[in-house]
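Review form for a predicted model. The reviewer records the input and the model, then writes brief findings.
Reviewer: anonymous (R2)
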Amino acid sequence: MRELRGKVAAVTGAASGLGRAMALAFADEGMHVALSDVADAADTLAQVEKRGVSAVAMKLDVSHAAEVEAFADLIDKELGGAHVVCNNAGVSPLGSAWEMSLGDWQWILGVNLWGVIHGVRAFVPRLLARNEGHVVNTASVAGIINPPGTAAYNVSKHAVVALSETLYHDLRERQSAVGVSVLCPAYVPTGIADSERNRPAGLAPMPKTRETLAREAMLKKAVASGRLSADDVARAVVLAVKEERFYVLTHPRIKGAIRARMEDILEERAPRNPMAL
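Model under review:
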C-alpha cells in the first residue's frame, strides 16, 4: 500500500505508547484514523484531528470479541471501512513460569493474543472483500527470543508471530493483495511497564516475589532508557506498510540473540539466555 492518503487506519491500544504514535504517524500520512483503547483515547483523538483528517474513537477491551467486532462496524459506518489494521494493544505482567497466577495468564493472553485473534477475525474478511489493505500485528522481540522471568508475555508474543506468519501464508495461498506485518520491537519508552493500571478486577496476580520486583525495576529502567522512541517505531511501521514488508525488527542489535536461538535449535542444544549474550 504505497499510497496511504485518504485511506483509513484502525489502531487498538491507541491511548498511549506505540498505539498513539502509530495513530499520529498514519494521520501524518493523510489517513483517517479509528482509535480504540481500554483507557480514554480522547487526547490522541484530538491530536489526530489537528492533522486535518477524520477520526473516531471507541473505548473497548480487545479481549472481548463482540467489542472488537463493534469497532469494525463503527469504522464501516463512520469512515467507510479500514484499510490498515493495527492489532497493537498489549500488557506485560512479569513472573517465572510457575509463579504467575491464573489471572496473570488469562489477562495477558486475553489482551496480547486473543486481542489479535479477534482483530484478525473481525477485519480480515472485510479486507479480503475489498482485496486491499494491510494488517500489522504488534508482537515483540519476545516473540522470537525467550528472556527469563516473562513466561506469559513470551508465550503470548510467540503466538502472535506464529499467527501473523500463518495469516501471511493463508492470504498468499488465496492470492490476496492484503499484506501482513509483524512488529517486533525491543525496549521502547512507553507505558507498557506500567500496564498493571489497566488490569481488570477479578484477574488477580500472585504475590510478587523479590525476584519479580527486581525484574520489574529493571524492566522500567530498560524501557525508560530505550534509544528508539515510540515515534521512531511508528515511522518504521508506516514504511513497512508501504513496502509490504513482513518482519519489522526495529532494534538491529537484538539480531545476535535471534541468531543464537536459531543456532541452538538447529544444533539441538539447550537454549542460551538471550539477556546474557
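Findings: The chain has one domain: 8-252.
Further findings: The domain at 8-252 is CATH 3.40.50.720 (Rossmann fold).
Recommendation: see findings above.
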